[in-house]
Write a sequence for this structure.
């Protein structure tokens, strides 16, 4: 496959559809390329002109005498395929198609897009678009602004991809406003070829790119995204704004796990497992890019606030604590050193309030002292300019003071707009500056969570010995029979094969006596009616628990028969299950639901009302490592119940972690299972007494036209 | 008391400490007053000059020949008291003291502030400050800019009070940036006299004020604030940024309710009960002021989004749904009318996506059609300017289209900064404009919640017949004995007097037989050890439940004696309680903890692990109305458990609501109770079977130097 270098580092560009008409995309695009100073040859292509912008214009790409690496196409939608065909013939390496009127408009547009796809397959060139606003690369060896946006992308280390062309301008505006610069900008449009994954990979290998920002509306291939981003995020932060959060998941599912897993849960789980930072808004993303741009990562989460005013420092403290940062404790030595030069009225505890009289010197000296304190990982400067104190001078001293220390410093400057422009331009080491304490702290907290991700062990996927390879056949047989729920004995065999402690269970067909089955299971036991169409058994009187001897078993059986007859379901009863009664313990739920796009979603939560009413659950996509399992158990709100409250004994939490990993192995081995619930699993302090009380497994219907067995 | 008019509508002002020296507060202040065009007489006062800024300067306020309404004082801290004394002698009505160096610096400063307080008492003038940045009033009849901020307050309908002087400039900047204007600005400083409550009252009565904004660090008198703001918010929105959210509450309390009620819970409860809109940041406040400024309140929460681009419309939809707004369903007629002129590719469902080709006419016509749909309460315009379409023209058509309709219209404009400045100035009816979908939607949602507050019934405080006036004596007696927990029988008498269904209970001193007491209570019953220092009874084996007959009672008693002896606490046992055993049901907790500043905080939540682990609880300050009680029950996450899940019967929820109101009456009648817990209260479907199973009441220690009985 041709490398994306042909698109991002072309030696020559053809602008097909270039025109001297002002106010057209073809004109603006050419202007942008010229104005940004492209390091290479530029060939306008348009049969109607001999020259455009004083540059010789060619009637078609085929008539250009030199080789062409990149063609940017802005012709009418009807002509795009024809032009692309010529590009193929010419041997062009990359196409950026700005023209709209393809899949996004439906109907004829879909056909037009299919033609492009075919041409891509035939010639092998790479395509960005169609229906996009272009690309840029600020590499000094390239200097390509191939967009029709009315502003320049600047020069910086943020690579940005947007799925919405319309947001492109807003993004470039936001970047410009914060004095950030962009290394690459790509509006991917309809993504007939190049998508987010390709860009992640390409940018991951480009040393000019320090931070990646993605605006996503959908995922191309979640598994590839997972694989790529897990590696990349360990050394480069990836920030995502993903919209479509509340779109009601269309999955029609009958299992608990399925009902509880909304579309966005998969996205959230995936991004978290990949160390991708998810933000809600573009504004938040820009605040975060600013924070990452000018600072090293912190070594820890202990923040010290240095201020000349109480109010905003309180706001910053509030925000820091609620975002999960720690307020640093300054050492006595630090306080003594600060006290030596700060006025008596100053507060030497964190937040260090130097009071309104503090000028550039106080800021510079205090910052140095604080940065030398080993108990401080991060410093947040708050500066409200009083009269006669010049923000420039204060920030100059701050920039000087921090240069010797490899610790992140951020600033909240509550001043006129012009300073946000001027200060970063004048002082290279000026800290990232924010207008409000809350936005600064939110960015700091995100950076800190990213640091935790980088420090987190990668974890391993454990493989447990599977006891019974024949369970594959069970699933296969069910699928051949049209799919659907496995009968309880098969559920137990599948779960048992993966080491789950299922309750001992015997099946007795209707009409036969239950005594011998009861002997095998032992007391106490549970009696359950069994029949394909019998649901809500409990409501029908079809479940009787805690049967302690033969006599009560006989009575229970008689009562249940009566119940089922009274409920009018006797004809649908096939038989009865006699099941071992689990010891009391904490009930949890483990489950899996198959997402068409994201693959299996694993769920863990507390059982009973915790899962049903409070939705106290958590999800993961595959693969699930030991570290993931460890974190899952601890991130539900009711986790303290497992540790034991009110004198309760701690249950075997490690058993839960292992079970999550066993479940991951099961769903990985048996991909035709589409839903699985173990609800409840009773967890006790003693691993030997833990039991899966009830399990449900649903198998997919046979696929049409498939070779899979 | 002198009215605040002397401060806000003075006919003459003395600036004491006026000086021609540039770069001083005394100079900037005088410049600001002159530049804003004060409608009245201005007298500089300074013994060192004969004139300042070409205006005759007086050596002291006493030498001014005319009456002086307002003195703004910027002299050295040591001179403030002397100058204030002269103001009193002169008969000045109001003082604004900018000078710092008072209570905020401690030590001598506290004494200096006390002097000012004494002078205020002697002369009765009103004071703002000291240690503040001044006041403003943009009323055309007044035109007073009595601040030393480097920018003008503009003219508008927002009255703003800040407790932090340092934030004053940031606030004025933020207001200016959004083209908002201010009616009044007050930096209250140390609040020796005028505080937030006075300003709320004053502004509540000023028809020029449409919205009030407060930046608070602490509450003066929460009860007065409650009273005032409850009335005002019904016709004028009050928006508060309250900092100090995470300050660890210093209350040392042993009750559940006390431990669960952090400092901020009181603030949150109070603000919500008063209809005050609490926001997290100044930015959010400004977005909200903008939203309120240019629009009527909506009639409902159904939003329609009108856009020319998919991406930002998805972001807006996401935000709207997660903020609790409803996406409006457009009528067929509306869709037909839109379809008649919009291109085929447009999406006529909400969000209405007119695609990128939409220009001013499409925006104008579509907006008119949508505003005429009765199913739409609010319209959010999203406009991403494509090439050749001028944002001004689009917003002009939008402004024209909305004029005929009394429905709120908001806009997200993703364009260069200059348009945010220019459009509102050119078109009076331009909608409030935001840069990002999320900030627009957040503001819309806040306005919608405010509308719900205005429509919410005020509710009534119910008074129940109290059965036993002598309970006052019980509390009094305990207080005289040094305060502390009431014994169980007294708890039952107090609760019983207020109509709570306490469990039947008999006390048996150690050594006496339990048989006759058991007869009075009846089976099943609970046996509990009783002794002042015996806590964690259950752990010691001091609680045995579900005793069903005389024989098991005898056995239980023997076993408990053994347990208590084995635990080594036998000597501390005073006797035994025999208590009626409650029927099974849902356990809830009702409680109260006394906040020194906010008064009683009432709590409701689900009992057991729900309260302990999940903190699924809610609080109210007094007074608590029937509407409050109704809302409290419904706002806990586990409310569905009370309605009945998995076939459970609905419990008597109205009984809980009544109990909350009874509790409110109890704590109102018996103010010396500092903590009260009913945990658990068992609630069943049948009101007659509901029971308070365990109650604790703590009485305050006697107050020193008090006449209260």
């Amino acid at each position: 496959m041709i490398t994306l270098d042909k698109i991002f580092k072309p030696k020559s560009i053809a602008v097909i559809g270039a025109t001297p008409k002002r106010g057209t995309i073809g004109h603006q695009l050419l202007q942008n390329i010229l104005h940004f100073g492209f390091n290479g040859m530029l060939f306008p292509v348009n049969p109607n002109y001999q020259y455009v912008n004083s540059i010789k214009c060619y009637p078609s790409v085929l008539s250009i005498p030199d080789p062409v690496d990149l063609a940017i196409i802005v012709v009418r939608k009807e002509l795009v395929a024809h032009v692309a065909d010529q590009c193929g013939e010419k041997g062009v390496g990359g196409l950026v198609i700005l023209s709209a009127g393809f899949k996004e408009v439906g109907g004829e547009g879909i056909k037009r897009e299919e033609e492009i796809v075919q041409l891509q397959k035939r010639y092998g060139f790479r395509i960005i678009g169609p229906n996009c606003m272009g690309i840029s690369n600020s590499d000094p060896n390239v200097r390509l602004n191939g967009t029709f946006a009315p502003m320049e992308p600047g020069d910086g280390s943020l690579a940005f991809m947007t799925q919405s062309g319309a947001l492109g301008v807003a993004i470039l505006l936001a970047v410009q406003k914060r004095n950030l610069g962009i290394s690459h900008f790509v509006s991917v449009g309809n993504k007939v070829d190049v998508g987010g994954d390709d860009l992640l990979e390409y940018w991951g290998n480009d040393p000019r790119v320090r931070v990646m920002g993605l605006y996503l509306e959908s995922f191309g291939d979640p598994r590839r995204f997972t694989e790529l981003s897990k590696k990349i995020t360990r050394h480069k932060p990836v920030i995502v704004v993903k919209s479509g959060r509340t779109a009601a998941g269309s999955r029609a599912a009958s299992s608990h796990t399925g009902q509880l897993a909304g579309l966005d849960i998969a996205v959230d789980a995936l991004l978290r497992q990949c160390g991708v930072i998810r933000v809600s808004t573009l504004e938040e993303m820009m605040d975060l890019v600013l924070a990452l741009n000018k600072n090293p990562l912190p070594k820890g989460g202990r923040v010290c606030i240095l201020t000349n005013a109480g109010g905003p420092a309180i706001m910053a403290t509030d925000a820091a604590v609620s975002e999960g940062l720690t307020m640093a404790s300054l050492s006595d030595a630090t306080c003594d050193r600060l006290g030596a030069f700060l006025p008596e009225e100053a507060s030497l505890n964190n937040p260090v309030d130097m009071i309104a009289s503090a000028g550039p010197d106080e800021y510079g000296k205090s910052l140095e002292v604080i940065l030398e304190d080993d108990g401080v990982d991060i410093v947040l400067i708050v500066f409200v300019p009083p009269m006669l104190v010049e923000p420039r001078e204060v920030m100059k001293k701050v920039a000087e003071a921090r240069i010797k220390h490899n610790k992140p410093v951020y600033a909240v400057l509550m001043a006129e707009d012009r300073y946000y422009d001027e200060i970063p331009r004048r002082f290279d080491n000026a800290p990232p500056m924010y207008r409000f304490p809350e936005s600064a702290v939110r960015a700091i907290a995100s950076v800190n969570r990213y640091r935790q991700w980088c420090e987190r062990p990668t974890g391993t996927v454990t493989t447990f010995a599977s006891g019974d390879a024949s369970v594959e056949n069970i699933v296969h047989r069910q699928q051949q029979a049209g799919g659907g729920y496995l009968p309880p004995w098969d559920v137990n065999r599948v779960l048992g094969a993966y080491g789950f402690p299922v309750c001992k269970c015997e099946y007795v067909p209707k009409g036969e006596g239950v005594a011998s089955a009861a002997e095998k299971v032992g007391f106490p036991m549970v009696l359950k009616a069994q029949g394909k169409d019998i649901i809500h058994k409990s409501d029908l009187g079809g479940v009787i628990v805690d049967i302690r001897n033969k006599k009560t078993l006989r009575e229970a059986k008689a009562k249940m028969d009566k119940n089922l007859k009274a409920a009018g379901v006797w004809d649908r009863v096939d038989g009865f299950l006699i099941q071992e009664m689990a010891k009391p313990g904490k009930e949890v739920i483990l489950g899996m639901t198959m997402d068409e796009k994201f693959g299996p979603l694993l769920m863990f939560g507390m059982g009973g009302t915790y899962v049903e009413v409070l939705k106290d659950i958590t999800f993961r996509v595959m693969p699930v490592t030991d570290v993931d399992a460890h974190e899952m158990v601890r991130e539900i709100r009711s986790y303290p119940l497992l540790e034991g409250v009110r004198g309760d004994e701690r249950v075997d939490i490690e058993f839960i972690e292992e079970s999550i990993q066993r479940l991951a192995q099961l769903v990985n081995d048996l991909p035709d299972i589409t839903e699985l619930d173990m609800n409840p699993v009773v967890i006790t302090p003693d691993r030997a007494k833990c039991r899966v009380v009830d399990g449900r497994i649903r198998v997919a219907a046979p696929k049409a036209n498939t070779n899979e067995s």
User: Anything to note?
Assistant: Chain A has 24 helices and 31 strands. Residues 246-256 of chain A have pLDDT under 50 and may be disordered.
